Amino acid sequence: MTAPDARTAAIDIRKLSLTYHTADAPVLALSDVDLRVQRGEFVSFIGPSGCGKTTLMRVIANLVEPTDGSITVNGMSPEQARLQRAYGYVFQAPALYPWRTVRRNLTLPLEIMGMAKAERRARAEKYLALVGLQGFENKFPWQLSGGMQQRVSIARALGFEPDLLLMDEPFGALDEITRDHLNEHLLRLWERTRVTVIFVTHSISEAVFLSNRIVVMSPRPGRILEVIDSDLPPDRTLDVRETAAFLKIAHRVRVALRAGHSYDD
Amino acid sequence: MTLLRSWREGYALPLATVLLVLLVIWYAAAVWLNAPQVISIVFSDKPDWTLRELVDATWSMERPVLPAPHQVAIELYESVFEQEITSRRSLAYHTLVTASSTVLGFALGIVLGVLLAVGIVHVRTLDRSLLPWIIASQTIPILAIAPMIIVVLGNAGFTGLLPKAIISMYLCFFPVAIGMIKGLRSPDPLQLDLMRTYSASPAQVFWKLHSPASVPFLFASLKVAIGISLVGAIVGELPTGGQEGIGARLLSGSYYGQTVQIWAALVMAALLGMVLVALVGLAERLTLQRMGARP
GO annotations under biological process (chain B) (predicted)? Predict the structure, then answer.
């Protein structure tokens, strides 16, 4: 039975654990994770490498199966949600298909979903404009910079208009200037579309700048240490990072991260 | 234009140098190899021959051990341009026969190679059971098996083009299959995960990810395959009793000691091979350009 509040929640995770069976010993990747995300929230997972944040995201996306516990996505099992194409996934790398032009990369999910050609084209145009890449429709991925490629991959995830956007360190491989620019871009995009966003990062300032809530995780086994609310003004720009309110939240995140980090390995 | 560009880009000069060196060696070898015959037969009643006469004679024999390049060139010109194209005496006719069985065998080889690769990549049991046989098939010398194929197919009522094309196919499906297996397995985990997040059907994953990803690998194989397909076609023409094709020309040339004719046919086979490889290369360039390859 699904609890009544799970139907309104975008994501409802209860007592979730995941063990990887490797050659030498089982590895507990996630332990006893409890988390509810409301529709329209922007939630970041932050933690050091190996803390299971990407694994948790992949559980939500039904790319791996949890060992124990329950999870619903939009009130459904992750598998149902995936089959209904409930989420768009943005990977660490742009994962564009090099033989497709920018437009045809954008329309790839739409083709798979069987959308008519004219509508596909219109969607591609709309979402390319949304990420500021009009005029690049007929370019191939290699003709674009890394930041532009990642914007195409975000537009591709938004293009089929899912209620949920899963972003796995999407700007991790980019330089700081491009990353700042894309962060601001993403925030404006979220304000306009109000989709639920789950955002994995290991940058504190990125997490604080973007999110409503910051989920701090610790490694081995991966678990949630603390969930920190952020109440920065919704129309914030990058300048907010100099304010006392921002620094206070960033400090709380840093303290939580330090508390969870054992230096014995 | 192309010649001019290749000259500018620095290909033409080294090429021309190599060609010149080869020609010099060839002419020298012709003197060296033909001289004993010339001295013992032509000069048998003329003991006071000069070096000049010897060289002239070795370069103009009717049945030399090694014909001089210009003899081959003249034979090539005469047998291509001075014969009716439908005549058995026309080298152009024989070349067309060989070219058509090469191309047919190549097409059959692509179909077989691609089908095998798709099966091997998608069905685990085929991977285990087929691949060793495919590799074993290539260790059998084609010269040994070609007559069998011709005889067996001849008894079944297939003569002419098809048996030769089958031999070509037998040789050229192999690089196609190996290249396609590698190509179909080339998509990285991220590209595969992406398809999974779209809950794409297996057919969609195949047509939208695996098959386009394999195209560059396919073309790399095709360039090898077209060359050995030509070899297969020529080998297939040898046991037919020397009727049609470049292989038949080689065979009849060796029956009658027509070394000039043999060499002309060899040069023609080389030219045909170069043209076919160039055509595959052109198709590759055009296709990969459309698929966004960097120029």
Answer: transmembrane transport
Ranges of CATH 1.10.3720.10 domains, chain B: 91-290
The nearest alpha carbon in chain A to B192 belongs to A95
Q: How confident is the model at residue A6 (pLDDT cuts 50, 70, 90)?
A: very low
Instruction: Provide the pLDDT for residue A171.
Output: 87
The three-state secondary structure class of A199 is strand
Mark out the alpha helices in A48-165 (DSSP H runs). Answer: 53-60, 78-83, 102-112, 117-130, 146-159
Query: What is the spatial distance between Cα B156 and Cα B148, in angstroms, rounded to a whole number?
Result: 12
> Where do we find the tokens 């794409």?
B200
Domain range B91-290, CATH class = mainly alpha
- Identify the structural domains of chain A with CATH numbers, from first to last: 4-86+163-260 (3.40.50.300), 96-161 (no CATH)
- In a mutational test of the A interface, the residue from B193, B199, B201 whose CB has the highest number of chain A CBs within 10 Å is B199
Residue B242 pLDDT exceeds 90:
no
Asked if A198 contacts A37 with a C-beta cutoff of 8 angstroms, the reply is: yes
pLDDT tens sequence across A233-262 = 878 888 888 888 889 999 998 888 887 665
Residue B290: closest CA among A94, A98, A137: A98
A127 token code pair: 């979402």
Report yes or no: A126 and A143 within 8 Å, Cβ to Cβ: no
Residue A10's pLDDT band, with cuts at 50, 70 and 90, is: confident
Q: How far apart are CA B94 and CA A136, in angstroms?
A: 52
Q: Is the CB of A101 less than 8 angstroms away from the CB of B191?
A: no
How many whole angstroms separate alpha carbon A140 and alpha carbon A224? 41
Asked if B194 lies within 8 A of A82 by C-beta distance, the reply is no
Give the closest-approach CA distance of A100 to chain B in angstroms. 7
Kindly state the percentage of chain B with pLDDT values over 70: 96
Closest CA to B295 of A142, A65, A220, A129: A142
Tokens representing A58? 């992949």
Residue A114 touches partner B, C-beta closer than 8 Å: no
User: Minimal CA–CA distance to B80: which of B64, B67, B96, B60?
Assistant: B96
The DSSP H or E segment spanning B58 is: helix B51-58
Q: Under a CB-based contact definition with an 8 Å cutoff, are residues B171 and B226 in contact?
A: no
Residues 6 or more apart from B153 whose CB is under 8 A from it? Answer: B159, B162, B163, B166
Residue in A27, A168, A162 with CA at minimum distance from that of residue A92 = A168
- Each residue of B95-140: pLDDT tens digit? 999 999 999 999 999 999 999 999 999 888 888 888 888 888 888 8
Q: What is the pLDDT of residues B29-68, one digit of tens each?
A: 999 999 888 888 877 777 778 888 888 888 988 888 899 9
In the numeric block, which tokens belong to residue B182?
A: 């590698």
Determine how many CB atoms are found less than 10 A away from the CB of residue B69: 17
Residue B139 sits at φ, ψ, to 5 deg, of -90, -10
